[in-house]
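Problem 12. The chain below contains 661 residues. Write out its predicted structure in token notation.
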Amino acid sequence: MVRNFLTNMDGKTVSDKLTGTTISGGLEIPPQTCPSNKLGIYYLFPFYKWPETQAGAWATPQGTVCLHENYTPVRRHCSEEAIWEDPDAERCAEVNVNDITNQLFELLRENSPEAINILVELTAKNQECFIPFDIYLISKILDKASEDSEIAENPDNFTGVISNLMDFEREILNVAQQLLNCTDNILYSFDKLLFKTQNTNITQSKLFVRAVQVANNVVGAMIKSKNTTSFDHFQFFPLDNVNQLQDEDFEIAFIVPQNFAKKHYYISLFYNDNLFNQNETVTLGSWILSILIPETRNDANSRIQIYFKEFNKYVNHSCNHWKYGNDENFIARPGKWKFDSVATKFKKEHYICEVDHTTHFGMLVSGTVPENFILDLITIFGSILSIIGIIVIVLTAILFEKWRNEMSRKIVINVSICLLLLIILFIISDRVNNGKGCITIGILLHYMVIAQFCWSLAVSYSSYRRYYMVFNNVTHIVKFCVFSWGIPLIIIVITATINIETYDKSPDEESSQICYPKGIYLKLGVCLPMAIILTINLIIYLFIIKNLTVTTLNLRKHVAKKSYNKQKVLVLLFFMMGMSWIFGVLVAFTDNIIFLYIFCTTATLHGFVIFIFYIVDSSEIKQQWKVAINKIIPKKLSATLSSKSQSTDIVSESVAGSFKY
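Solution.
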């Protein structure tokens, strides 16, 4: 991670993060805070003092240990409007705190150097006995110590505490972060201390710190090691030429142009991501690197380069930074990984991430787990088969008038065209850049997704009429076209009119890698109509299963083949009615890998299944293709290419009526 505290992402300095920002004319705008309050809610906490707290942050009573029965701290939220909310408990629970908590509470009152000396020993043992409130007390001790000049002169024990914390159970640190932003505060205290140090060269088992002096012949450095069990074996080598990296096997390297820093800068290497906690789960693919640059000089034409060595083999590698602190409105926000760009391959096992500015930034390579590679292959293979099948269906419709004029096949043609456009738009959306082009693709993609579901509803309605109502009248395909192509247009017009920018990619979010609606527009403009249609289709599909199952049970043996054809009808309707999306819903709610594989397989093979049922399994259309091919290819070659096996009874005769009524 590249972190520059003199200028963060919004152009604010380190002091700005805590006290406010200065605009032209020297006027300082402080962040909003909830004032210190000794009474809290008067009759609940009459003796407890709530410290001054920044808007958006949580506080716990100052000067006392106040816990819930589950030993998490009693908290009070300062709203984004800087108004105190009620505490999350009526009173402090009567719990017996352990010796560690009592000892930490006393250390908070001690002189900082002495407290740090004791804290480094305390955090090195019995780590499983610490509770989230203990992490909060540690963060307060470190914050106080980061202001001490004596500790800045000898930061070994301070960094020893940071190293020890990375051996703690991840769950305890994560809970402490979610409750009181503790691990973010620990990181910030560590960075504050580094700015006060000089010529820092520290190696702890889980933390590696170096001060790099800017010199004419030094462009960066690389860190090498043959043993990665701890940082004790890591070695730091300055670089005077970037070409040195080509022939070296290193753990991590960086190139900082000389116009970024005046005299020196600091680098820190973190052994794991235990101090980087967010709600979403991510996979760490490399070491975490921090670069602090005092008195930075921004240069839009220069780039900081970081060379990461991957831990394991992954398919995707992305560059991320850890963003925490205040937002643009000075509201306190918990930290999270923010996507920057896709990492580029440097050489075997090594990737490059580049930063073209010196803001509060970090670089993290995180790859997808190996299972995603298989899922990607399934998706690509299924999509290719569907595209080929749909192209053959469209050619069949163009060449053979009799085939395309039949009612069920007109529906199939429309469904196939919709699927083909949907696949193409999805591929384009994944590669188009932000801007008007992305918005256009997003609108078209949104339209095709809703159109696909509307056509599946048309199939369901036609099938329902086939099995449950009188169907001796022929419905005109025009009605289905007006519904399936018209309803999506209305939804898209409403969405685009309210907020057309929702179709654009979000540049700072990894989750937004396609041009598609987001937030409330995704829920109301995509998920809601999909849920309604899928529910209706599922009910109709279950009715059809019941009808065909009862009929099949009453069949005699000599009509077993007809029973087999009805089973094929159910398979076809499963795809035509969008039943594969049921597994997509199950994935969203359960995160089950089995459901994910089923969904990726069935959803991408939609077009290919239609091709199998309507082209391959139809002796009539195969005969028409044979006649057409004979007109183009010499008879001998045509006879060689043609299949001599007898075609089975076609399912199309059973299915063709499925969409009639």
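Discussion. Residues 398 and 404 are 8 Å apart (CA to CA). Students who got a different answer should revisit the alignment rule from Section 12.3.
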